[in-house]
Write a structure and sequence with these properties.
Blueprint (H helix, E strand, L loop, with lengths): L1 H7 L4 H24 L13 H7 L12 H10 L7 H8 L7 H17 L2 H11 L11 H11 L4 H11 L5 H8 L9 H7 L3 H13 L1 E14 L4 E12 L6 H9 L4 H14 L7 H9 L4 H20 L1
Helix pairs in contact: 4-6, 5-7, 6-8, 7-9, 11-12, 12-13, 12-14, 13-14, 14-15, 14-16, 15-16
């Protein structure tokens, strides 16, 4: 189970759906067996129906994915203890996208209560498993989304998430980080994340947020027709933004990003220089010369572009 929980935190939410399918199929088989086998013959004193067996059964965390919506709702309202691990807490949180409205309502009421008594490490595991794909949850409304975002602010969860954002060497951590930035919980730690995160894509995201002064994330997707006559179109991502609650020093961030060991991060710095080349206090010429000699062709091209623009400006002046 420990290995399952660890893998869950590294894999996309679609794998959680697969696990739910497997568990639900096995539950259905077991309930059918209980209702028909001779071992359950004593149930005939009351009723031999599967419904009777279902009502008398002691519910557990596994029942969160039961095929019966009444059982899923009753399970959520029955569970009062801490989740034993991140996998089971993720099963509870996924009920916020359940296909039964009453189950979603029960999840909104009970998931925060379960989270508050659950080990923050387990909550963080579940959040890391859910956030990469949760923007595709079509049944979830604004209140359901806010329920998950509120989990990040629970004491201890934010520090656990920050540790994962910084230390995770693999997995969809850039997507997780982007979704966490819907809240201001990690704003004051963005500089540390930008400098210490193991994954270059995470460092690049942190630097981009600091250089822009705003956070962006994917909220969902929509279909856009490009040619209705031929039924041609494409899926477009819908992005959300918010301003940061901190005011980083632009030059310090730019210099740090320009010195990063990854060309992905230096690319973010070169993009920022193109935007800020005329900003007072920015040593644009020195940075442009530095970027123009970079090993990355895209970074070097931006450096040469800035040098050309600055040369044109000097001539025109």
């Amino acid at each position: 189970m420990a290995e399952l929980v660890r893998l869950t935190s590294l894999l996309p939410s679609s794998n959680m759906a697969r696990w739910e399918y497997v568990i639900r199929r096995e539950l259905s088989f077991v309930k059918h067996t209980l209702a028909t086998t001779k071992k359950a013959k004593w149930w005939s004193l009351f009723s031999t129906s599967a419904e009777s067996v279902e009502r008398a059964r002691i519910l557990s965390w596994i029942d969160l994915v039961d095929a019966n919506g009444y059982t899923r709702e009753r399970t959520l309202r029955t569970l009062a203890d801490a989740a034993p691990n991140g996998f089971f807490f993720a099963l509870a949180a996924r009920r916020l996208n359940d296909w039964v409205a009453q189950v979603r309502s029960a999840a909104r009421e009970t998931v925060p209560e379960i989270a508050r008594v659950t080990n923050p490490k387990h909550v963080a595991d579940a959040i890391c498993a859910l956030l990469p794909a949760w923007s595709s949850w079509g049944r979830m409304d604004e209140s359901d989304s806010q329920t998950i975002l509120n989990l990040i602010a629970i004491r201890g969860v934010a520090s656990e998430l920050m540790d994962r954002v910084i230390s995770s060497p693999i997995g969809p951590m850039p997507q997780v980080f982007a979704q966490i930035l819907r809240t201001s919980t990690l704003d004051e730690h963005l500089t540390e994340i930008a400098m210490r995160a193991v994954q270059p894509a995470v460092r690049a995201k942190a630097y981009r947020v600091l250089l822009l002064g705003e956070a962006t994330w994917v909220e969902g997707a929509r279909w856009r027709w490009t040619d209705v006559r031929y039924c041609e179109g494409r899926v477009e991502k819908i992005h959300g933004t918010r301003l940061l609650t901190i005011a980083p020093v632009l030059l310090d961030v730019l210099n740090a990003a320009a010195s990063d060991r990854s060309s992905i991060v230096r690319g973010v710095a070169s993009e920022a220089l193109v935007r800020e080349m005329n900003t007072p206090g920015i040593p644009s010429l020195a940075l442009a010369r530095r970027f123009a000699e970079d090993d990355s062709s895209s970074v070097a091209e931006r450096g040469k572009f800035v040098l050309k623009k600055l040369g044109e400006s000097a001539i025109s002046a």
